[in-house]
Design a protein that fits this description.
The strands form 3 sheets. This protein has a 5-stranded parallel β-sheet with strand order 2-3-4-1-5, with helices on one face. The protein contains 24 helices and 10 strands. The relative contact order is 0.05. The chain is elongated and about 110 Å long. With 561 residues, the protein is α/β, with parallel strands linked by helices. Helix 3 packs antiparallel against helix 4 and helix 9 packs parallel to helix 11.
Length: 561
């Protein structure tokens, strides 16, 4: 007998043998048991997950000599002919190559003929979405009122391309991608039956490369079994698949975490020398980063992403080397690498530069680490101030009755001196706070730019000019702004500072004498308005003036140079 490929040799022969599609198998089996056989079924899902196989099993279940039955015998004449594809009553049509209206008209003529020796005439149309619009319209009438001896089974990978008029007349079943763990177990069973010993890591590598398709996985396994004799290790499987083991990614990420840039480039050279496809290698790195970040967030990836127990342990070790923020930065760099590789002439250069960028990002302090350091320094400063101001335990305060008139003026003088020092410290910290706002809080800085600050007795007053046109200054600082200012000063000085909003009279401030300045001199001519007439006065928009003052802007009239 000629050799038969694994994908055909190990094709399931009954409902229970279809891997990972129990939700479909159970529903169809129950409908057959209860005699609720529909005239049209539609199987939708990814390629290689069992749609056509399920359609053939359904045909056997309907036409078995013991049927209709949910457990076809597989040995009667009808079951054997359906399995071999030689049954006259089960017609398989490729929708991609028989998509025209003439093909469907021929089908409509044949459905009226009774089956030759079976109970039902079953039409299996694969890739039904490839039919033309005219072909669908020609099929519609037959699908709506089929003869009682006809059952249609449609299979498609693109259900959204099937017209709603067809979908509404079918029972729809959705097939899932097969889990990597389920594929690996089934491949191990097949390899054992074929007389081969395959390493578990090799099975998982093949299963991941199949991307949820059992048919693809069996084809890859067939190729791996042909490559080696006897026991098959991971290296044999990876040599066939053209990918590198997960240890390569583990080494890359370990070197990046440890700042070993030389080690990173050595691993890149090894990978390139092996002839590995660099875009595929970069995509594998993205998958590993995804797994590491999920583990970092407490999510089990062994079943979700299909890693073996040993690989899962390696991923956990790497996850402990990074913070969640670091992994996010590495993932962003890897994502940009995948985009760049689409148009890269020298792919190795882009891979090397991206990995070096990852190493630099991993060694740089993260934002969260900087914030923690600032908080620690602030708390340390506050503790020092509190310790400095704390009264020693061995100091005994004299009773009030012992106070003398001479001691009271001395205490008042000391309090004034301490208040003066405190006021200077508040003013100095305020100036530093305003300087910092230039880069970290430009909007709040604009609000405070025109304020006059007065510090007296440990209290800070933010004063704005009073008057009809400028009174809004006293309202532009809301409660959140005041709270933010208090918190910032408290972090700097280690104690609460009383902050209030006040006003000052700009006229009185202008009349105050300034040393070295002649108060009798008139204001500069540039700011004087000589004999203004009513028609010459410009109309001032108060909103524009507020915006101008807030952002320290100026009005540029048309024609000014």
């Amino acid at each position: 007998m000629s050799y038969q490929v694994i994908a055909r040799k190990w094709r399931p022969g009954d409902f229970d043998a279809v891997i990972f599609q129990d939700h479909v198998s159970r529903t169809i089996k129950n409908s057959i048991k209860n005699g609720r056989i529909h005239h049209a079924y539609l199987f939708a899902g990814p390629r290689g997950v069992g749609k056509t196989t399920m359609a053939r099993i359904l045909a056997k279940a309907l036409n078995c000599v013991n049927g209709p039955t949910d457990s076809p015998c597989g040995v009667c004449e009808n079951c054997v002919e359906i399995r071999d594809g030689s049954s006259f009553d089960v017609i398989e049509i490729d929708g991609a190559s028989n998509r025209g209206i003439e093909n469907i008209r021929e089908l409509r003529e044949n459905v009226n003929f009774a089956p030759l020796k079976s109970r039902y005439k079953v039409y299996i149309i694969d890739e039904v979405h490839m039919l033309t619009k005219e072909a669908f319209n020609a099929l519609l009438k037959t699908l709506e009122e089929p003869p009682p001896h006809v059952v249609f089974v449609f299979a498609t990978t693109e259900i959204h391309q099937v017209p709603e008029t067809i979908l509404s007349r079918c029972q729809k079943y959705f097939f899932k991608k097969i889990a990597i763990d389920a594929i690996a177990r089934h491949l191990g069973y097949i390899a054992q039956k074929e007389g081969f010993t395959v390493d578990e890591k090799a099975l998982y590598s093949v299963a991941r490369a199949a991307d949820g398709s059992m048919r693809d996985a069996q084809s890859l396994l067939d190729q791996v079994l042909s490559f080696a004799e006897g026991e098959i290790g991971e290296e044999d499987a990876l040599a066939i698949l053209g990918v590198v083991p997960i240890e390569s990614y583990m080494k890359i990420l370990t070197d990046i975490a440890g700042g070993d840039r030389k080690g990173v480039l050595i691993e890149v050279d090894r990978v390139v020398t092996l002839g590995v496809d660099i875009p595929r290698y970069a995509a594998g790195l993205i998958d590993v980063l995804r797994a590491v970040r999920l583990i970092k967030n407490g999510i089990s990836v062994q079943e979700l992403l299909g890693f073996s127990p040993e690989e899962n342990g390696q991923l956990r070790n790497v996850a402990e080397m990074y913070s969640d923020e670091d992994i996010g930065a590495l993932f962003a760099t890897g994502k940009e690498l995948l985009v760049s590789l689409r148009f890269a002439a020298n792919e190795r250069i882009y891979l090397e530069m991206a990995l070096l960028d990852m190493a630099a990002a991993a060694q740089a302090p993260s934002l969260s680490a900087l914030l923690r350091k600032i908080e620690e320094l602030s708390e340390g400063g506050a503790g020092a101030v509190e310790k400095k101001n704390r009264k020693p335990h061995n100091v005994i305060t004299p009773p009030h009755d012992a106070d003398t008139a001479a001691e009271r003026p001395a205490d008042a003088t000391a309090n004034e001196r301490q208040s003066a020092v405190s006021d200077d410290a508040i003013k100095r910290n305020w100036d530093e706070f305003i300087a910092q706002l230039r880069t970290t809080g430009a909007f709040l800085h604009a609000k405070l730019a025109h304020a006059r600050v007065d510090v007296r007795g440990g209290r800070l007053s933010i004063n704005y000019p009073a008057g009809q046109d400028t009174s809004y200054y006293s309202r532009i600082l809301d409660r959140n702004d005041i709270t933010f200012i208090k918190d910032a000063l408290k972090k700097r000085m280690g104690q609460d500072i009383d902050v209030s909003i006040g006003r000052y009279d700009p006229v009185e401030q202008a009349e105050l004498s300034v040393p070295g300045e002649d108060q009798s001199a008139p204001p500069p001519e540039a700011v004087m308005l000589k004999n203004p007439e009513v028609e010459e006065m410009e109309i001032v928009n108060p909103v524009v003036e507020k915006v101008k003052d807030l952002f320290q802007g100026k009005i540029i009239n048309k024609g000014d140079e």
